[in-house]
Specification:
- The chain has 19 helices and four strands.
- It is mainly alpha-helical.
- Strands 1-2 form a two-stranded parallel ribbon.
- Strand 1, helix 1 and strand 2 form a beta-alpha-beta unit.
- The two termini are 33 Å apart.
- It is a multi-pass membrane protein.
- It is found in: Membrane.
- InterPro entries: ABC2_TM, P-loop_NTPase, PDR_assoc.
- It holds the Pfam family ABC2_membrane.
Length: 484
């Protein structure tokens, strides 16, 4: 960091774990660097040794979030003496500055014997600094408007992010590709899992047991289609932990203006498309002809497209849920509720005609509805289900349309494409919601630890203090809460 192009350095706690001699050597080197390279360093130290303190050119004295003094190091004692506090000869200046603002330590530094001591709070010290000659010079300089003509044209940032949107997208895509290669075992495992499940599925619904052409045969095909849809949907739940583990880092980088939310979300969406197509194709390749679905090649590829749309929708849905929940518990609960409602109102567990009118809207907003309709239309409108209907309770002419009507499904070929458009529309909607949630929502839990500020209670107490006995220092007790 020191050899880079930066001209301003902010350092906090650089003496942690170091002895006073090492700290002195480091600060001495930094002072020489500042003077020789015309740079600026702001270093935060807690009660440094006197020899280290003397190395600084300027001092910023902070207390309770306010600046009590900011100016040359040699004038800080003059300022406090003008208030009424004097540093003892055998006490380090840094220790004196640390204790002079404390209610329990301030009294011992009062040296104006002709005036009665009263506790001087931090706001009063700040007001006194404004009337001190160093403070007056500082505020006079700050009161002069900045002349932009004297500044370099590149001195001020004119855009929110350091690079263009296209460069942000390219960098995010490269990072996402790198992360996917590092997590290749996970994606191989998911592919293996869906392969094993497809083998189990076609052994349960093997084509030798799957007759067709009758109303009684349609139930088995409905079961096979719904079970396939469930597996593809549940395969997308892996997005919840994958997204959740990345959110803490994302929120920090977003707040630091590394990149916007869309630069994080779009690469994830794009990189999942090939994987989604591979997993959907594996499922159809292993199950389609072994179960005995419609043999036409066009139906085969339409089935792949439908499952690809369902898988894309599922991945987008669970990413969106992760961004809304922001914790694994919340996201898992919300995902479970969403899946249950989608399954119940999707048209298979409860047929459309059996859903009450006051919840029929749930049927049309459920993504499962359009996935199930697409694969059912693709299967039951095939020629092999065109056997004439002999059931007088249904007005439809073919067995395939009777099976669709019995579950409240759509019965026209063009509705397949409308369902496909709806699935990809849901995917787009959930991805947009994912971006919006990442843009405007903050993490529910901050990783930074903190303690309650108990000083306010002390400030409200009476300003009167017990008279001190000559030669003794009053030590008022203060309750402390320790949290580990």
């Amino acid at each position: 960091m020191l050899v880079g192009p930066a001209k301003v350095f902010y350092m906090d706690g650089i003496s942690t774990g170091l002895d006073s001699s090492t700290t002195y050597q480091i600060v001495k080197f930094m002072k020489q660097m500042v003077h020789s390279m015309d740079s600026t360093m702001i270093i935060s130290l807690l009660q440094p040794a006197p020899e280290t303190f003397d190395l600084f050119d300027d001092i910023i004295l902070l207390s309770e979030g306010q600046i009590i003094y900011q100016g040359p190091q040699e004038n800080v004692l003059d300022f406090l003496e003008s208030v009424g506090f004097k540093c003892p000869k055998r006490k380090g200046v840094a220790d004196f500055l640390q204790e002079v603002t404390s209610r329990k330590d301030q009294r011992q530094f009062w040296f104006k014997k002709n005036k009665r001591y009263r506790f001087i709070s931090v706001p009063k010290l700040v007001e006194h600094f404004k009337s001190f000659h160093i403070g007056q010079q500082l505020y006079d300089e700050l009161g002069i408007p900045y002349d932009k003509t004297k500044a370099h044209h590149s001195a001020l940032v004119t855009r929110k992010y350091g690079i263009s949107n296209m460069e942000l997208l390219k960098a995010s895509l490269a990072r996402e590709w790198l992360l996917m290669k590092r997590k290749s075992f996970l994606y191989i495992f998911k592919t293996t899992q869906i392969t094993i499940m497809s083998i189990v599925t076609f052994t349960v619904f093997f084509r030798t047991e799957m007759k067709h052409g009758r109303l009684e045969d349609g139930g088995k095909y409905y079961g096979a289609l719904f079970f396939s849809l469930l597996n593809v949907m549940f395969n997308g739940t892996a997005e919840i932990p994958l997204t959740m583990f990345r959110l803490p880092v994302f929120f920090k980088q977003r707040d630091a203006l590394f990149y916007p939310a869309w630069a994080f979300a779009i690469p994830i969406w794009l990189m999942r498309i090939p994987l989604s197509l591979i997993e959907s194709s594996i499922w159809i390749i292993f199950t389609y002809y072994t179960i005995g679905f419609a043999p036409a090649a066009s139906r085969f590829f339409c089935q792949i497209l439908a499952f690809f749309g369902v898988h894309q929708m599922a991945l987008s849905l669970f990413r969106f849920i992760s961004a809304l929940g922001r914790t694994l518990t919340n996201a898992s609960t919300l995902a479970t509720f969403t899946l249950l409602m989608s399954f119940v109102l999707g048209g298979f567990i409860v047929a459309k005609d059996d859903i009450k009118p006051w919840v029929i809207w749930g049927y049309y907003v459920s993504p499962m509805t359009y996935g199930l309709n697409a694969i059912a239309i693709n299967e039951f409108l095939d020629e092999r289900w065109s056997t004439p209907n002999t059931d007088p309770s249904f007005a439809e002419l073919t067995i395939g349309k009777v099976l669709l009507k019995s579950r409240g499904m759509f019965m026209d070929d063009y509705m397949y494409w409308i369902c496909i458009i709806a699935l990809f529309g849901f995917s787009l909607l959930f991805n947009v919601g994912f971006i919006v949630a990442l843009t405007y929502l903050d993490p529910l839990r901050d990783s930074k630890s903190g303690i309650q500020d108990g000083d306010n209670k002390i400030k409200k107490s009476s300003t009167t203090t017990a008279p001190s006995v000559k030669g003794y220092l009053p030590l008022p007790l203060k309750n402390s809460n320790w949290v580990f």
